[in-house]
Known about the structure:
The chain has helices spanning 6-13, 25-42, 97-107, 126-140, 142-145, 159-174, 196-199, 208-218, 257-269, and strands spanning 49-56, 64-71, 78-84, 110-114, 147-157, 180-184, 246-251, 274-279. By secondary structure, the chain is an alpha/beta fold. An eight-stranded mixed β-sheet has the order 1-2-4-3-5-6-7-8. The relative contact order is 0.14.
Amino acid sequence: xxxxxxxxxxxxxxxxxxxxxxxxxxxxxxxxxxxxxxxxxxxxxxxxxxxxxxxxxxxxxxxxxxxxxxxxxxxxxxxxxxxxxxxxxxxxxxxxxxxxxxxxxxxxxxxxxxxxxxxxxxxxxxxxxxxxxxxxxxxxxxxxxxxxxxxxxxxxxxxxxxxxxxxxxxxxxxxxxxxxxxxxxxxxxxxxxxxxxxxxxxxxxxxxxxxxxxxxxxxxxxxxxxxxxxxxxxxxxxxxxxxxxxxxxxxxxxxxxxxxxxxxxxxxxxxxxxxxxxxx
Length: 280
């Protein structure tokens, strides 16, 4: 296995390194869902954060579930962070209580975590459509949520970070202002799944074999294909100018390390304010 930072070695060792194949996606989803539910049960939620479950109407006809977090001490209207959970685009839950309660307490913002549709049942662009529909709803009805929609940040980890980058690109194209994008070890480039030089490395938690399965479930074309729609993969976007300021964090042991650094460099070259944090 690649080296892991000493402070992260213990928690990483407790996370199962599950190989995901097209046949096992649903099984992996159930296993990770059970583990996440157990973690939520064992984690004491702070008394000073309110949590509310709501739904948002979308054009597909099915409402999108959201979980809203706000510190009780926060003065409304608050800034808003749209949180996008990880899970390789094929699993994961918007009930990301430990992360979202910490964000709410630390920032004073309202955190809106979105239960976007998952592949392979709902490939691109379903997840992106759900996220954009949620943002449109927040902007139409800010009073309902006690937010200032002009102070909005999109944020996510892993696949959620990649979706956050895609959302930032779409909002830029639509002329909708965004204060920032917070990308935590984001999954940005399907072409990593085709790299033979990383295929034999045992990356913690998420292997390149799982990466290939996930991108293959989400995309309309095979991973690495030149026919891939550029708006389906953040790193394939040709024009990164005019995007919201970005914070990108990734570890040197992470499978996404190289693609994240490359994206940060391209953002800077396009004149975007970027903060890059690398954990050795």
